[in-house]
Amino acid sequence: MSQPPPFETRGLKQWRLKKRAEFLAVASKGAKAPMPGLVMQLMLRGDDAPCRVGFTVTKKVGNAVVRNRTKRRLREAVRLALDPAAYRGIDIVVIGRDRTADRPFSDLMSDVRRAAARARQAVASADAGKVRSAS
Question: How many Cα neighbours within 13 Å face the side chain of 73?
Fold first, then answer.
């Protein structure tokens, strides 16, 4: 099985979700996929622009050092595990959990892949339901 090309997260600040309103939009309109190491939320934007990704970790997880380490691990797992071409026109929010910092990295990457697949499937089925109900 070949590795997908990695997300290029360095230097691409325009492809990040930063504003609270962007995070809330994904949370309210997107699909949610909880995993042991993270929670992933996905929302279709309806355009063909590159994928935008946002990372968040609550204070319940730990102090600033632990939260930043958790976000770094999540950024790297997303960069390595997801194919950027497959996620055009999608906003992704990745929420770190208390187990993220100590979870083995290979398990974290598989959590990212499974969560992305599950969330995409939920978004696709919800989108198909809207099309059916409109006709």
Answer: 25
3-state SS class at 62 = coil
Tell me the pairing of strands 90-96 and 52-57.
parallel
Residue that the structure tokens 């504003």 belong to: 19
End-to-end CA distance of the chain: 40
Q: Report d(CA 101, CA 33) in Å as an integer.
A: 19
Answer whether residue 115 is part of any domain. Answer: yes
The string of pLDDT tens digits covering residues 82-105 is: 888 888 889 999 999 999 989 999
125 is a domain residue:
yes
Three-class SS of residue 63? Answer: coil
Which helix (H) or strand (E) segment holds residue 40: the answer is strand 38-44
CATH number for 66: 3.30.230.10
pTM of the complete model? 0.83
Domain span at residue 32? 13-134
**Sheet architecture: strand order including 38-44:** 31-34, 38-44, 90-96, 52-57
